[in-house]
Amino acid sequence: MTTVVISQPMYLPWPGFISQMAMADVLIWLDDAQFSRGSFTNRVQIRTSGGSKWLSVPLVGKGVDAPIRCLAAARTDWHRAHRDLVRQALRNSPFLQEALSILDMSATSDTLCAALVKSAELCLAACHPPRSDIRQASEMNVPGASWRRVLDLVHTVGGTRYLTGHGAANYLNHAAFEAEGVTVDYMGYEFLPWPQQHGDFSPYVTSLDLIANVPPEHRTAHLSRTTLPWRDFLAAKGIAVSD
Q: Which Pfam families does the record cross-reference, listed alphabetically (predicted)?
């Protein structure tokens, strides 16, 4: 079975997406998708002593009508501002310097899209031994839109299993995937909590939180490994299952 994960680039993503990446045999970055305001493409939360705050990369034109691979930062100092916030928020964490190094290395990329992708891939490498064949959708010459393009991308890389996050329940034609020999599973997002510096445990933060607070050899144990077949997932969500 060849597991495929397809996602728009995410900036310093939460551990749920790192868990998903860790289970992929092939990871496809949907870098040619149109940017969606309010998504996690250019922003992620971090816990601080004053509550949760956003690490957001400001975008030229607010990213309106731009494919993700064409996004550009509206300010040149965004990395410095994020570094200062991460350093302050995680100042008592034992592996803070590793987290800051990931932030620094991501910012050296030639384009903003490359920086977003690199930030996610570096977080994965710090939490779990990477094993994915990684592709860029913009280089794969697979046209189309919505679930049909997703299925065609899976076919192009020889995938037999599509592992997805919860948002896909709103548009995926699960029966069509199954009819064409592709199993669809959803992430379960069940985590082993790790020590955090501020407040009660929450996984809904940048993976830098996990990296900064847990020794490298123990990080994989904190990632989610649970998945659900699509019928079970939809039933659990109260969504009608139609074949």
A: WbqC
3-state secondary structure of 105: helix
> Which residues are within 8 A (CB) of 135 and not within 5 positions of it... i.e. 6 or more apart?
26, 27, 28, 29, 157
The answer to the question of residue 147 being in a domain is yes
Residue 243 lies in a domain: no
pLDDT in tens, 6-58: 999 999 999 999 999 999 999 999 999 999 988 999 999 999 999 999 999 99
Is residue 241 included in any domain, yes or no? no
Number of domains present in the structure of the chain = 1
Tell me how far apart the alpha carbons of residues 228 and 198 are, in angstroms, rounded to a whole number.
Answer: 31
Q: Which token pair is 188?
A: 């379960």
In the numeric block, which tokens belong to residue 147? 């679930």
Does residue 117 fall inside a structural domain?
Answer: yes
pLDDT tens-digit series, residues 130-148: 777 999 999 999 999 999 9
* Beta-bridge partners for 34: 67
